[in-house]
Amino acid sequence: MSIDYAGFRRELEAFARSACPPEIRAVVAAGQKITKREYQAWQKILNAKGWGAPGWPQEVGGTGWDIRQRLIFEEVMAENDCPPLYHHGLGHIGPVIIRFGTSEQKARFLPRILDGSDWWCQGYSEPGSGSDLASLSTSARREGDEWVVNGQKIWTSHAHEASMIYMLVRTSKEAKKQEGISLLLVPMDTRGITVRPIRTIDGWHHLNEVFFDEVRVPADHLVGEVGKGWTCAKYLLERERLPPANVARLELMRRQIDRLVEDATRAAGARRDFSGLHHKLLLCEADVQGVRVMMAQATDDLIHQRPLGVQPSVIKMTCADVAQRLTTIALDAVGPDAAHRFLADVDVDADLDAQEAEEASDATWIQNYMFTRARTIAGGTSEVQRNVVANELLGA
Ligand SMILES: Cc1cc2nc3c(=O)[nH]c(=O)nc-3n(C[C@H](O)[C@H](O)[C@H](O)COP(=O)(O)OP(=O)(O)OC[C@H]3O[C@@H](n4cnc5c(N)ncnc54)[C@H](O)[C@@H]3O)c2cc1C
């Protein structure tokens, strides 16, 4: 039976407008940071509708949608200022459990991702093991029915508010370095786990160090085979960069361009001077269009099960680059006064008059400028992505 994609889009649009609470949509529309409470509230609404996991098969509670429907879902939700799906559970570890997990693991962990009651974080990177992830040294030794974990993770996004961590641990030092790694699912309230915040220049708290001191994990929390965690890790990283994952980001950038153009028009002759910034915006817009074309191509490749080649790496790099350029333009536009106000810790809370609202909007731009500095590092650095592209295209 052929799918009525246009009708599907209309149904999603009506739902997004009526079901997503206005206060959550306002946060997304303003480009502010979405809190765990907001993500969870939206996830519960989606789940109640049966749309909690657009990328999962029906037998584990997903929608069973095809790739085109998933893309339309992401587009419509982003166009209507609904939060993107919280990726660590739904997009990362969920699909790994579906692919490699036991039926007990599926029954235990997937429903709690679907209804938003578990909030996951990713324990991959360690001090000294980021780009060269396979060199990681956090260890797990087997004692009876438990794994005992010792070591440290770093740059762990949202660990301070997560209830679960999926983590790579070394279970053997004898094998080739990729082969001695296993994937463990660990409750964050287990004795011996310490989370320490890493303060970043954007002023938001999202990154952490996580320490493991004789942490005891039930043996049946290991996913897949012992020593084969690298296969799970790669499966996860490959999915992280597939087209649906980038739609919300792309829409956000398109919105940012619109907002900057709107500001430029409104501010003609006013306190902001945008002259000289328009052509930079146009170049960003051209790149966003370019990524859209590439995503359409990659989606077509996925539908027809053709290899994606370097497309995910190029999309990731370009999105990170444009996000940085856009927020740099915004920083130029809001000017040094706004930056000083931000650094003086301006109050950006609700109930603002017109001038305060403008200042709050400036502060959001500045925070986003600071935040996007990390975009060329998080999820695999741009330099490493360029290596991937060079290796693939030049056979280096
Ligand atoms: C905002 C943010 C969120 C993150 N969230 C998480 C998370 O939730 N969980 C998690 O596990 N990790 C997370 N990370 C960590 C991230 O995955 C790593 O920072 C990243 O993989 C780079 O590793 P590294 O920091 O060890 O830098 P390194 O690998 O030490 O790199 C240092 C520099 O050397 C360059 N370099 C390294 N190798 C090569 C090479 N072969 N060729 C050319 N240049 C090279 C890099 O590009 C970089 O410029 C996050 C990072 C950030 C910034």
Report what the structure shows.
With 396 residues, the protein is of the alpha+beta class. The chain folds into three domains: 5-85, no CATH class; 120-228, Butyryl-CoA Dehydrogenase, subunit A, domain 2 (Beta Barrel), CATH 2.40.110.10; 241-394, Butyryl-CoA Dehydrogenase, subunit A, domain 3 (Up-down Bundle), CATH 1.20.140. Helix content is 51%, strand content 13%. The protein contains twelve helices and eight strands. It has helices spanning 5-19, 22-29, 36-49, 67-79, 87-100, 103-114, 229-240, 244-266, 278-303, 311-343, 354-372, 382-394, and strands at residues 120-123, 139-143, 146-154, 164-170, 181-187, 193-198, 207-218, 222-223. The strands form two sheets. It has a four-stranded mixed β-sheet. It has a four-stranded antiparallel β-sheet with strand order 2-3-7-6, with no helix packed on it. Helix 1 (5-19) runs parallel beside helix 4 (67-79), helix 5 (87-100) packs antiparallel against helix 6 (103-114) and helix 10 (311-343) packs antiparallel against helix 12 (382-394).
CATH architecture of the largest domain: Up-down Bundle
The Rg value, from CA coordinates, equals 22 Å
Q: Assembly state here?
A: single chain
Largest sheet geometry = 4 strands, mixed
Helix content: 40-55%
Distinct small-molecule ligands in the complex: flavin-adenine dinucleotide
